[in-house]
Amino acid sequence: MVEAKIAPSMLSSDFANLASEAEQMVSFGADWLHMDIMVQILLGILCSHFVPNLTIGAPVIESLRKHTRAYLDCHLMVTNPLDYVDQLGKAGASGFTFHVEVSKDNWQELVTRIKSKGMRPGVALKPGTPVEEVYPLVEGENSVEMVLVMTVEPGFGGQKFMPDMMDKVRKLREKYPKLDIEVDGGLGPSTIDVAAAAGANCIVAGSSVFGAPEPAQVISLLRTSVNKANKSG
Ligand code: DX5
Ligand code: ZN
Question: Is the whole-model pTM more than 0.90?
Answer without folding.
Answer: yes
